[in-house]
Amino acid sequence: MAIITEIKDNKQAFMPLLLIGDEQESMIYRYLERCRLFALYDEGLKAVCAVTDEGEGILEIKNLAVAPGYQRRGYGRRMIEHICDIFRKDHILIQAGTGDSPETLPFYENCGFERAFSVKDFFTDNYDHPIFEGGKQLRDMIYLRRRL
Q1: What's the whole-model pTM score?
Q2: CATH for 138
């Protein structure tokens, strides 16, 4: 049975899994200390989610990563639903930024998120190397939002 717990200390220990969701360590360190980090265990660590409070009732998923071999088994969706449930009373929106990827965008849309806005050239301006997903180079950050 899956259990989700909040990680309050030694968040860096989860770096190997966080690097699946965001492949540049320096970018992860921009939010790691200020985020609330959640880990999903089901006979071992299966997923992590880093969430920040962006003010004005908006939460942001900065990183959602599922361990290789366990993707497409509902762990990511379960993590999102857990985050929405615990923050619903104090927030109105949850958002996630991702690349224009045929792998990631449909996942968020299937979890009830809708495209809201984009940040042009985010990946090319902020990462020290080209980022590819699904065989496509990521350039713009696409933000999706869901009402809580």
Answers
A1: 0.94
A2: 3.40.630.30
